[in-house]
Structures are given as structure tokens and as C-alpha cells.
Amino acid sequence: MSFPNSKKILIVAESIDIEDSSGTKGRVALIKNLAKIGYNIKVYHYTRKEIQIKGVECFSIKEKRRSALFLFSRIERYFRKFFKIYLNKSLEKIFGFSFTLFNDRNSIISALKSIKGFEPDLVLTLSKGGSFRPHHALLNMPEFHNKWAAYIHDPYPMHLYPRPYAWVEPGYYKKWKFMKNMSSAAAVSIFPSKLLMEWMGSYFEEFQLKGRVIPHQIIESAVEPENELPTFIDKNHFNILHAGNLLWGRDPKGLINAFCKFLNLYPNAKRESKLLFIGPENHYSEYLKDICDKNSEIYVSKNSLSFSQTQKLQQLTSVNVILEAKSEISPFLPGKFPHCVKANKPILLLGPYYSECRRLVGQSYPYWAEIDQEDKILDSIVSLYHQWKNSSKGLQLSRPDLHEYLSLSYLENTMNQILSDK
Fold first, then answer.
1. Structure confidence at residue 2 (pLDDT)
2. Is the dihedral angle over the CA atoms 74, 79, 82, 85 positive or is it negative?
3. 322 has which bridge partners?
4. Per-residue DSSP letter, 56
5. DSSP state of 120
6. Which SUPFAM superfamilies does the record match to this protein (predicted)?
């Protein structure tokens, strides 16, 4: 379904390859939903391969390979690869960023300057990780500043991350200055979470003054046929699924210990219960492999599954797990959050007391605990198991309020406000 809309949006994205990161999945979901609303959209992306999004004009930005910056970036790379001499930290202390980033920025600028016959009402920059390449490009294009919507997906620079992730990068002051200049230059800043907007606004006042919240989006699509399910899961069992990368800090030991306690308390549950970890190799892989070898009720994948396969598992499991790091606060909205809401299965939320996820599910949400509160996690698993045993229809999240918050209508209302304010 699309709605008539004459507004033009130029989207400058670092990547639209949904298999490269959870961040890109979220950005592509936003692009698709903006197209569904009916905006006239052109996407210029720096994925550096041809990728198309149905119903959207997408153009791959070419890397500038005939420039001094490109040459310097390759020299630095060769020194690192062949001589094990790492110049990047010293260079970033001087310049703030790498020669590669500067060349990528100029590549994006060159592509945007070549656009003819498309006068956007809004220019939306989408990035991933810690590079913000499209934002660097727009910062150097003042002709777009009065219509620039800068999407800030994570805290930046790295020393602004909450513990345990905060660390001081080389060239941190220049990175800080970049973010400060961006907060002033952009007409509006967009954040996927309210806590992230407040967190960044506490360091850069303009983000608080000009910020808007657009959460990660639900994309409506059919579940793949059940006969394509992987053999490691039985949809008729009580399955607790963690899908995604277990980055350092997302320690699964509390969850695993609680699950093992649950099996000891309810021995009969062993034949019908499973805890599954689906994702790439990570900081905890060795520990997980050891646990998996000793417990047949715990499954750990050797590799990631495709995005569509993962979504299918999330919809056919009994419980989805969101696992965040031990911290005082988590201002992030995990990319998997809308997938879990769409799956309509209870979410076992393990994270800080102050977190965007907990703010959204509500303080009274019963299946929340800190990641090391094993007894509280155990209580949630036991409660969910008993409900699963006694329900003929299976467990359901049943939160239409969350579905609405992540919906097209909420996005359309927010975008109307952004465009009317300009």
C-alpha cells in the first residue's frame, strides 16, 4: 500500500546490503517504508555493488580511484598488510580520520553533485558503524544544510558510548568537532530511540533542540514456508531463541545458567525445551561451544543465517531474547526489536534498568532482568514455560501499542512534522 505524496527525498546511504549488518537492515527497512508512504525517493549508496530495492531508484556511488587521497589510503593499507606497520592511529591523531574516509567522503560528494533534475525537499543521510561517511559528505555541502536530516544511529565519538563500550579513539577531538558541526549544520537530526536522542543531546545541545525520533521499522512480509525450517529446531517444542551477534559485553552466561537451573527444576522439560543461539562467531564462541557440547538442550549455530531465515525462526520460536550489555544505561534500540515485535512472541528482555527497550515495553513488563540476575531470569523462563504448556495457541506478545509505534502511520506522522517544520 502506498499513499499519494509529492515530496521528494534524496537518501544518501553508506550501505543497502541487508546481509552486512543489523544496522543496514534497519536503514533499508526505513527506506522501504518511506517508499510505501509514497515519497518520491532516490537512494545514492556507497555499498559499491549494484543493489536494488523494489520500488525505489537506487544508484551505486563509485569510489574515486584517481586522487591523492586514494593513493595515500592504499599506501597506508600496504604498509599494514605487508610490513605490519600500523600508521592509521598516528594519522588519525593528526587528521582525525583516515585517508580512506576522506576519499570516500569526496566520492560521495562527487556523485551528489552530478545529480540533475531532482530537487529534493529533504536529504536524509544514513550510515552504519562508526564511519558516518554520508554525514561527512553532507557537512561539506552547505547547499543542502537547510534540508539535511542527519540520522544518528549510535553514540559518537566512541568515548560517548556508555560503559562498557566507551573508549578514547585517536583523533577524538576532531571527531567530537565533526559531530558538533553536524549537530549545528543539519536542519533536523533523527534518532532511532528517545534515550539516544537525550544521551547525545546532553553533549550536543542542538540534537536535543532539533531532534526527532524514528524507531526501527517493521516491514510487513509473509513468513517463509515451515517445511524449510532448519533441522535444529522443532516448532512444537518450547524454544528460547537469541538471534544476532553476541558482541563483547552481551554476556550469555546468566541466561544459560538460568536455563540449566530450569531444566534441573523441571527434568521433564528436557525433552521439549531448547535454548538456541543463532549468529556468527563472536567473543563468547569458545564458551558457547563448550556449553553446547555438554548440553543437548542448548544449540549454537556455527554461522549466521540469512535475514529471511532468521526472521522465520523469530516468528516460529516460543520466546525471543534481547540481550544487552551490563551497564547503567542502554540508549540503543536494537535492530532486532521490530523483528521481535512483528514475530508477536514474548520477549525475554535482558539488559539495564534504564534502557530504550525497557522504556518501550514498560516498567511493569514481567519478562525483564539484568543479564546477571539468574534467579529473576529463571522466574521468567518458568513462567513462560508454564504458559506455553497450558496454551493451545502458543505464546503471544500481544502488544499492538508497540506495533503501532513501529508502523507506517507513526512514520508518516513524524515525517509530516519534519517536512512541515522546514
1. 43
2. negative
3. 349
4. B
5. -
6. UDP-Glycosyltransferase/glycogen phosphorylase (SSF53756)
Long-range contacts of the stretch 222-228 (C-beta < 8 A, 24+): 223/311, 223/312, 223/315, 223/316, 224/308, 224/309, 224/312, 226/316, 228/312
Cell of 178: 565533526
H helices within 62-202, ranges in order? 68-82, 88-95, 99-113, 133-139, 172-185, 194-201
CATH 3.40.50.2000 segments of the chain: 8-217+407-421, 226-402
CATH architecture of 8-217+407-421: 3-Layer(aba) Sandwich (3.40)
Q: What is d(CA 100, CA 80) in angstroms, rounded to the nearest whole number?
A: 14
CATH-assigned architecture of domain 226-402: 3-Layer(aba) Sandwich (3.40)
- Give the per-residue pLDDT at 169: 92
Q: Which amino acid is at 116?
A: K
Beta strand residue intervals within 264-397, DSSP E: 273-278, 298-300, 319-323, 329-330, 347-350, 354-355, 368-369
> Mean pLDDT over residues 162-188, rounded?
96
Grid cell at residue 3 = 499513499
The grid coordinates listed for 59 are 544508484
pLDDT at 6 over 90: no
